[in-house]
Amino acid sequence: MSHSYQRFDPFLQPREAEHMFRVAESFGSFGTYADEGTSEGLGEDLPQRFDVGQHYVARGLDGTGNTDTPARSASRTNYFRETYAYGTDMRVPEIKPFMDNEPLLNWAREMGGSDYVVPAIVYANLLIPGQELAIHTDVPEFRGLNRLNAPQWLLVCMHHSGLFEDWRVPILTCVSWFGAARGGAFTFYPDGPESPRESVAADHNTAILLDTDSAFHGVERVSTASQALPPITRETRLEFRSGEHWLLRQADDVLAEYTWEDLRYSISWKGYCFADATQHELWRSGEDRLDIPTVLARFADHLKAEDAGELTGKTPDERAMTLVNHYIRFPAVADVG
Ligand SMILES: [Fe+2]
Asked: How many angstroms does the Cα of residue 305 sit away from the middle of ligand 1?
């Protein structure tokens, strides 16, 4: 299955692009991509994206293998993320013009075949030298279930299974890059997981628009020419100091210092792309919503029909493993095309 995409070069006006650095600096302190939502009673001991982690620890970024220890793998992929805007919650008020960027809305309307595009979220990712982002698909949303009330791996299974498409809210993502970090190319499978992986350089003020809930993608390693990768835990923070300087901190300890030239800075914009007015209104009104018991019952029936195991008589973690291993098919090993 092919995924359409569009690239933008340049993306913003030069002054707007430059301003994105000031936005990150004013935010000041970036934490690692922490777990969100709930897994109570459902794979509660597993990380929210254990589907991605278990594949990456075993197979690495390109699927050929991973010589890092699990702890080192965690440091490589514990990148830094903060949300600039979520729905109407403008955590960084000056991001509003970007969130409502009319050309971006028009590109999403065109690609999504939708007159009903609603900006959903804007967030920033910072990767330090030596980090990369494991191959994954993003966390989708369904009427009634999203990352705030359902485990992220469950939502991903729901989309990959194709069983809940009537409730899915289609999302397009625009990933844009700012700065001069070396390496860190955006890598993805535009023609599906069985086809070659392709890479797009993360050049300053360029962007790509695509359905990252459906297309597998990741980030190649950011150049380590300047310094080695320190151990990164969930508590590590990346803090803006002044001028060009950022500090990597673990409580009171400074683990490393970076300048903007070292950091891979991306901003992701996501928009809901409703097929028509009816779908938009269903979402807006909160009608016809899924819940977790309904989803698990549907999965149990489907597993049974496919003679692929069952969910009863298993621990929550075992049930989660069963679903992830059955429904999420990572890309086959392939060279960069
Ligand atoms: Fe992603």
From this structure: 32
